[in-house]
Amino acid sequence: MDTFFLQQVLNGLSTGMTYVVLALGLTLVFGVLHVMNFAHGDLYMVGALIAFIAAAQHQLPYGWAVLLAVGACGLLAVAIDKLAVRPLVARKQGSADTLLSTYALSLLVSEAVLAVWGPTPQAVPGLVGSVDFIGITLTYQRTLVLAAGLLMVASVHLVLRHTLFGKQIRALAEDRFAAAVVGIPVRRIGSQTFVLAGVLAGAAGALMVPVLTFSPLMGHNVLTKIFAVVVIGGMGSVRGTLVCGLALGVLETFGSMYFSATVNLALVYVLLLLVLLFKPAGLFGKKG
Asked: Could you say which of 42, 212, 216, 240 is the most buried, measured as most Cβ atoms within 10 Å of its Cβ?
């Protein structure tokens, strides 16, 4: 098989793995709280920002930068949950109110970062070096993105299937009222799920920023794509998130060789529209 083709596939898979991790957090939040978190992309951006501050400005080892980004995004997720989600989600129009409140917070966070750090993209040091195999070169950083992404997806799957916390999440996703009746702490599990999604987003940002460079707008740029992954794969479907996230990364990589970024994004919109028109439950979702 042509090595150039394989090279692009591997590059696309590393990008797609970022979409998978981000969309997985969004899927968990939607499944448990039945809300779409518009600030999810900004958690990804803040994870990248913390990695930039730690590794580029303060020359801390990259591993410490990732850990700091994960911790910071976990704390930011706690704040978003307390300010914009928990007080509103129980209302009659809670889903709509929460969507608007997280959108407002998204604008506040992105504009604040833009005002302080400016719009200029900033390089972030990551792992140096590459792996060469049968003419294919994969940088250590992209290898780390793939390996860490797979580890996070597998860990979330194991948690959902084999822990009490995971069983409680699945119970809430299935029937929130019934879960409350049998004694599951609905509010606490919802908040913990929101924080878990924030941690995943922060890790994705810190892992991918050495590949992409940091920009205050990177959260907004990725948000549409991960919404598309969630909807096309099927709301609440981890398998759909994995398949569609990886596929989008590969298609985007090949598309960038022939089309501009604007045209690539337009193709995502077209695909999203077609799925909503002809298979609204998503490719792997369940009706209802």
From this structure: 42
